[in-house]
Amino acid sequence: MVTRMVEQPDRGGSVSRWFSPLRTWSSKNAAAQRPPETVRYGSHPEQVADLWLPEGRGPHPVVVSIHGGYFQRQYRRDLHDPLARRLATSGVAVLNIEYRRGRSGGSLENTTDDVYAAITALNATSHDLHRRVSVVGHSAGGYLALWAASHPDVDLVVALAATSDLVDCAQGGYDGGAIASWLGGTPKDEPGVYERADLLGRLPTTATTFLVHGTADGTVPAHQSTRYVERARQVGDESSTLLLDGEGHFGLVDPREPAFDAWHGLVLEWARA
Hints:
Blueprint: H1 15-29, E1 37-40, E2 48-52, E3 60-66, H2 81-89, E4 93-97, H3 108-121, E5 129-138, H4 140-147, E6 154-160, H5 166-172, H6 178-183, H7 191-197, E7 208-214, H8 223-234, E8 239-244, H9 258-272
Helix pairs in contact: 1-2
């Protein structure tokens, strides 16, 4: 039985009614810290990120944060502000990235190139940061985090309720047609695009992957995470999954919820290693 601190939106519910009080709570309850620094990693308006720095001297471990929203333009990186603030308070630097998606110039190549470019851009920062990074992504951001697992600077990927099977989501109607809009057609219309987008075809990777999923997730089904991990292990990747009984889709990125702690400690353990 899931013990909820607050009401979470389920499939078809209002994300804004959940997120607005979460943002207020996060701002009021966070320890005093420096505001994030907005940085650009490209010339497109969406190629931008917020760098949250912890207090104290570096070098700081780095988490790259990738928000979800089924690649739709209306969902932005501020969805991960509470997550980034919590990690920064815990002593971890966070690069909370935006990327091209939906009709803002998004495509499989543009969106995934943006994620790679944002991670690479960390090497050019003047701040004292560790070179090896962890990537935390939620939902569609989980897909992008797993795509980035092969980046040479990525050491750990934590994929939260990851959209790891685009065909399954599109054919199952979980996404409301958003993936087809992003990729330019359905799996039937654009089979070659979906084949290139298949994460299983990118295995093995160079990173450790950890997938967390709620068994009651109606937005992205949990069997996608178990399938990914099974295949990753078969080809020799260090990959594991954690299924949270009765958990839905949004509690994983809500610092008020126990589901957040299910992976937060793992990232801090990696950061201290």
